[in-house]
Design brief:
Length: 324
């Protein structure tokens, strides 16, 4: 998975592949489920499932854990499936259905009872989540067929509907997890709204957590300078120098700047292809090959301007060939 291309997915998997974070998350958001789970029994498992049709399905994160029940003869294992979404994805219900089916097939192959699967969708996008969490709505069907309707439901954690004060109350004692969730919740807002997150991180002095969250914010916002200025304002130059020494900031800066540069180059290429498609109908394969080989952001910007201004695709092609 490309970190630059999918920073939200990368950050989600980095945060919640930590079993301690996931257990605290369930404890805070889903106490009714946490109450029946054996403490510390969560185990991160492979996210790749395969059906008998040889189709592979990749879950974002999947855990198995034991249920705290009296019947000791029952293999009381359940699955917790985490799906991360940064935008309303209408395919979410069918994705969950596929995942459930693949887990059922696994149980069948192993001659085991069907294990319960609890899907949890973690959403932090800007638009309202307008996808039903329970499908179908059986009230629309006659009573005599309701027993034959295949139901699908999932738990939605929509951060846009949860107040910051509520998050702070739930995770006050876990600065890293709280800061991570707040970063998810506020990542699409003005970068200045992220200041309290930086303040909390610097107080906690959890360097691993600081690195990951700052990486995420810079990758999404593409504004390393503003983050540096804000950190210095909060911590002061002396504190920042200490952090810088631990962080080996120059190495991180170089990595981030290279990542941001590659992201800008990729976006510039896509802008060229979109402009050609809109203006001339299709993208010539030779043009596509040549453009994908260009590493100069300035040259890509010049090509994009030429596409917009030119009435001839051949002129664009000639310019690209002569400059590569």
């Amino acid at each position: 998975m490309s970190i630059e291309k999918h920073p939200h997915d990368w950050f989600f998997k980095t945060v919640f592949s930590n079993v301690k974070n996931t257990e605290n998350f369930i404890k805070g958001f889903l106490p009714e489920i946490y109450s029946v789970i054996v403490p510390s029994s969560l185990k991160l498992i492979s996210t790749e499932k395969q059906t008998t049709k040889k189709e592979k399905f990749l879950l974002d994160l999947s855990f198995e854990c034991r249920l705290n029940i009296e019947d000791k003869n029952l293999d009381a294992i359940i699955y917790l499936v985490f799906e991360h979404k940064s935008y309303p994805d209408k395919k979410t219900p069918s994705q969950i259905a596929y995942y459930r089916a693949s887990i059922m097939e696994e149980d069948e192959r192993n001659n085991k009872p069907y294990r319960p699967v609890i899907p949890i969708v973690f959403y932090h996008g800007q638009k309202d989540w307008n996808i039903p969490t329970r499908i179908p709505d059986s009230k629309h069907y006659p009573d005599n067929i309701k027993d034959y309707i295949t139901n699908l439901n999932y738990i939605l954690i929509d951060l846009s509907k949860i107040e910051n004060d509520t998050l702070i109350e739930k995770f006050y004692n876990d600065a890293c997890l709280l800061s991570s969730i707040l970063a998810f919740k506020n990542i699409f807002k003005d970068i200045k709204t992220l200041r309290p997150i930086f303040e909390r991180l610097l107080i906690a002095e959890n360097k691993d957590c600081i690195y990951i969250i700052i990486d995420y914010i810079v990758l999404v916002k593409k504004d390393l300078k503003s983050v540096e200025v804000m950190l210095e304002e909060i911590g002061g130059k002396e504190k920042m120098m200490t952090l810088t020494e631990k962080w080996k900031i120059e190495g991180l800066k170089q990595g981030l700047q290279e990542g941001l540069q590659q992201g800008l180059i990729k976006q510039a290429r896509e802008d060229i292809f979109d402009a050609i498609e809109i203006k001339f109908g299709s993208v010539d394969e030779e043009i596509k090959k040549k453009v994908n080989e260009i590493e100069s952001l300035d040259l890509l910007k010049n090509i994009h301007r030429l596409v917009i201004k030119s009435d001839s695709l051949e002129d664009v092609k000639s310019y690209i060939i002569s400059n590569t």
